[in-house]
Design goal:
Blueprint lengths: L2 E5 L5 H12 L4 E4 L5 H5 L5 E4 L9 H4 L2 H7 L4 E4 L1 H9 L4 E17 L12 E11 L8 E7 L4 E6 L4 E4 L11 H15 L25 E10 L5 H9 L4 E5 L11 E6 L6 E6 L4 E6 L2 E6 L2 H10 L1 E4 L11 E6 L4 H5 L12 E6 L1 E6 L4 E9 L5 H14 L13 E8 L3 H16 L5 E12 L3 H11 L4 E7 L2 E7 L2 E5 L4 E5 L1 E6 L4 H13 L1 H19 L8 E10 L3 E11 L6 H8 L7 E2 L1 H11 L10 E6 L4 E5 L3 E5 L2 E10 L5 H11 L1 H4 L2 E4 L3
Parallel strand pairs: 1-2, 1-3, 3-4, 4-9, 10-16, 21-35
Antiparallel strand pairs: 5-6, 5-7, 7-8, 8-9, 10-20, 11-12, 11-23, 12-19, 13-14, 13-18, 14-15, 17-18, 17-31, 19-20, 21-22, 22-30, 22-34, 23-24, 24-33, 25-26, 25-32, 26-29, 27-29, 28-29, 31-32, 33-34
Length: about 700
């Protein structure tokens, strides 16, 4: 069975792709709703059609593309989902109206009339809904019959009385929908009974574009040399005394030593023979390479560049290491890279590079569980033994600080005049605007943000060291690129990929403070797991990330291993889900990053339409905030965190991004108070005054 899957620019379509591929044994043909003419569409070979969910209203061609013509003119069996369901009714004269209340990421029980689409599915089964519009039950065309209802008596499924066309308002592909795969299997069985031979030429089974790379002439071959030192060095002492005065450095700190996510800390600077800096400007699509003070620029996207470097480099290592980093790139990807990932032109330009990495050929890797240290260094196969010399040199420096105890100075960090980029009134206006867009079906969840800026005059190193003591986090990091310093206390894993293609993402949506009272702390934990708003926020991002992984991972490999589990940190309880998959054999780590970026927990869903909404509401570029920090190893291993709880320091200015997910259940005042709460980690350390 060959299925045509029409994508209405939704962020759950690839979940359908995965399920349909499993059922049919072959992937569906995926077509965006505006990227091909109806005539060319008719030249594809397919047996049935699934019309995806999507933002907007099916009566608007901007939202529904050519789907209305597909419904009215093609003979193949059709299943419309959510927007597609509404579109079937609207195509024949049905009325689309607002639901009683938006139902985004909400669960309902469904009653059906035993239509063949629901064969083998019991009544009163649970489904996940993502909609604010519905098909009016009072004005159904004669040719359309309602075949399932929710407990609030809204139409949840329909069919055409004489054509093989069905629609379901809910989302069968959602992780929390019961019998979703069964319903899709039923549609395939019904299609096989009604197939009318469509013998056309199949031009493609995947209409997505491929990156074209400018490849180096030869592969660069490295060997990774390793020296293990069975001594316990305090990473903060080594950072402060050996690295902090460098013009650039990277410290992927991870200072929750009791957590598996924080087992290893990586500390490095640009001091090796092969090291250099790479910067990227997304507006002009320009890469800048800085090595030994010399700059070279050329036109290429950062994703093309990184793909090129990994594809034409190899690294051999004789040692079996307990960590994945084998030297490579450490730095950040900025939020406005959505231009390269989603094809949306940013309204504002970041004052900083849109991507910034050091190529690290020498590093210290601290094992915080085994209390030992690894020195690692790259050496080209035919080069002299420079790595051993560095091992000996750095070992002598380390020994000077072996017995030194950490000293955290209780400094006063003065900040001048707190200034939000969007004041309270305008931010609440933006929240209300989001709520209207959600009500009209343009988005399910909008991750709205703001930024606050301070003038400062204090030692950044001491500030970070004290910040990390007060805000222990699994993905804490400090990165310095000359005058630009990034201090991150991130608690959220964006993407982890090992060298054989196992992928993991751990989105966070839902946070409550901890209590020193054990009984109260337990109640807060229970509240977090049962709160409808937190559950909806988290569920929408889980389904979004499943979608983002759907095209780059092997069929059937994307799974949710933990759904909305409470993870407790020193100061907060958080609702965390874990999604895993296995990359396709012909898919690279860089393609996976591009498929996932920006992180869904910082955009909302559907991602493309929601980023377009955010572009109009927010008054400046997010820049580094909302992007990703971490490493891309030469062997393809990746570990990136979401840039949250992060301060960006440049030219005596400290900028901190804050935000929250706006959904239909959001209260504007509560959402504003949430961004103030998220500032506390930094504000508790700052003495804010009007004069420096």
């Amino acid at each position: 069975m060959q299925t045509l899957l029409i994508d209405n620019y939704d962020s759950f379509t690839n979940n359908l792709y995965q399920i349909i591929s499993e059922i049919n044994g072959i992937p569906p043909i995926i077509i965006k709703n505006d990227t091909i003419s109806l005539e060319d569409l008719n030249n594809l070979q397919f047996d049935n059609i699934v019309i995806s969910p999507g933002p907007g209203n099916p009566v608007n061609s901007h939202d529904f593309g050519f789907c209305n013509n597909v419904i009215l003119t093609l003979d193949a069996p059709i299943l419309g989902i959510c927007l597609g369901h509404q579109g079937i009714a609207a195509a024949y004269g049905g009325v689309i109206k607002h639901a009683i209340e938006p139902m985004h990421g909400r669960l309902s029980n469904i009653i059906h009339n035993n239509d063949e689409l629901f064969s083998g599915i019991p009544n009163n089964f649970r489904v996940t809904r993502y909609h604010s519009l519905i098909v009016s039950n009072c004005m159904l065309p004669d040719c359309i019959k309602a075949i399932a209802f929710s407990e609030d008596n809204e139409i949840m499924a329909l069919r055409h009385t004489s054509k093989p066309q069905w629609g379901v308002q809910y989302h069968p592909e959602s992780i929390t929908t019961h019998f979703g795969k069964v319903l899709l299997e039923n549609f395939m069985k019904l299609s096989s009974l009604r197939i009318k031979s469509i013998t056309k030429n199949n031009n493609s089974s995947d209409m997505s574009g491929n990156i074209i790379y400018q490849c180096p002439q030869e592969k660069t071959k490295y060997k990774l040399l390793v020296r293990k030192i069975n001594k316990h060095y305090k990473s903060e002492i080594i950072f402060k005394n050996i690295f902090s005065n460098s013009k650039d450095y990277v410290w992927l700190d991870g200072n929750l030593a009791n957590k598996s996510l924080s087992r290893f800390s990586i500390l490095a600077s640009q001091n090796g023979p092969y090291s250099y800096q790479v910067k990227y400007n997304v507006l002009n699509k320009v890469i800048t390479i800085i090595k030994n003070g010399v700059e070279n620029t050329f036109s290429e996207s950062i994703f093309e560049y990184l793909e090129n470097q990994l594809k034409f480099s190899s690294v051999e290592c004789e040692d079996k290491l307990p960590f994945n980093f084998k030297c490579g790139f450490i730095g950040y990807l900025g939020y406005e890279l959505y231009k390269d990932c989603l094809g949306i032109e940013p309204k504002y330009n970041s004052p900083f590079p849109d991507a910034n990495f050091l190529f690290i050929d020498r590093a210290l890797v601290f094992d915080n569980h085994q209390n030992c240290l690894y020195l690692i260094a790259l050496e080209k196969i035919n080069d002299s033994n420079q790595a051993i010399s560095w091992f000996n040199q750095i070992s002598k420096e380390l020994d000077r600080y072996e017995m030194m105890q950490k000293i955290i100075r209780k400094n006063e960090f003065v900040a001048l005049n707190e200034k939000f980029s969007i004041n309270k009134k305008n931010y609440i206006d933006n929240i209300n605007n989001c709520l209207e867009r959600i009500k009209d079906g343009d988005s399910y969840e909008i991750c709205l943000t703001n930024q606050v800026e301070y003038s400062i005059k204090f030692d950044v190193t001491d500030f970070y060291l004290q910040l990390r003591e007060q805000n222990k986090a699994p993905f804490s990091a400090i990165l310095k690129f000359n005058d630009l310093v990034i201090c991150s206390m991130s608690v959220e894993r964006f993407l982890n990929i090992d060298s054989i293609g196992n992928v993991e993402s751990k989105p966070i949506k839902g946070t409550l403070p901890r209590s020193i009272d054990l009984d109260e702390d337990g109640k807060l934990k229970t509240l977090l797991q049962s709160d409808k708003k937190f559950i909806s926020e988290n569920l929408m991002i889980v389904d979004l990330i499943r979608h983002d992984l759907g095209l780059v991972c092997e069929i059937g490999s994307v799974e949710v291993t933990k759904l909305m589990a409470v993870e407790s940190f020193p100061t907060v309880h958080q609702l965390v889900s874990t999604i895993r998959g296995k990359l396709k054999k012909d898919t690279t780590s860089i393609e996976c990053i591009k498929s996932m970026f920006p992180g869904g927990s910082m955009t909302g869903a559907p991602k493309k339409r929601t980023v377009e909404i955010l572009r109009e509401l927010e008054t400046n570029a997010r820049g580094i905030y909302s992007g990703a920090i971490g490493y891309i190893s030469l062997d393809g291993a990746v570990d990136l965190s979401i840039v949250i709880r992060t301060g960006v320091i440049n030219n005596s200015k400290l900028s901190i991004g804050v935000g929250g997910a706006i959904i239909a259940m959001s209260s504007p005042e509560d959402e504003y108070n949430e961004i103030l709460l998220k500032l506390r980690g930094f504000k508790n350390l700052l003495k804010i005054t009007r004069d420096l």
